[in-house]
Amino acid sequence: MKLHNLIRVGTNRPARRRGRGQGSGLGGTAGRGHKGGKARSGYSPAPCCCGIPYYRRLPMRGFSNSISRIRFMGINLDTLEELAVSHSTIDRNVLAEANIIRERDGLVKILGNGKLTKSVTVVADKFSKAAKQKIEMAGGSVVELASNG
Length: 149
Fold this sequence. Notes:
Shape: elongated
Number of helices: 4
Largest sheet: 3 strands, parallel
CATH class of the domain at 72-144: Alpha Beta
Order of helices and strands: HEHEHEEEHE
Distance between the termini: 79 Å
Number of strands: 6
């Protein structure tokens, strides 16, 4: 017995011969029904165009207020630690020079992930409680801009 002699049971069935007379069981319309696009050759429905559109098939979930949403660019303390080596005050301009934010980005929020060991003044639109606490524990100060929500 060799590999080319082995036969897997249930595979290699002969293909169905469609449209070869009524005696074959798939004569006449060849299993495609009567008329219409699906009965013709070359027809394949686009996945998005199968009767009911996706936005009506799926349930409505949640709400996105994209018009008046306030977007914050989150920056962690470990990023500020790297900037604190060369700057005593870290604000939007310093972050833009270091390519951490872009000028056109939304508001800046300082987050409390990481450690801050150097004493710096941080100017941002918003601070998390942990970030404020860690900056002040390191001897720095926090300046929160009041022009946001």
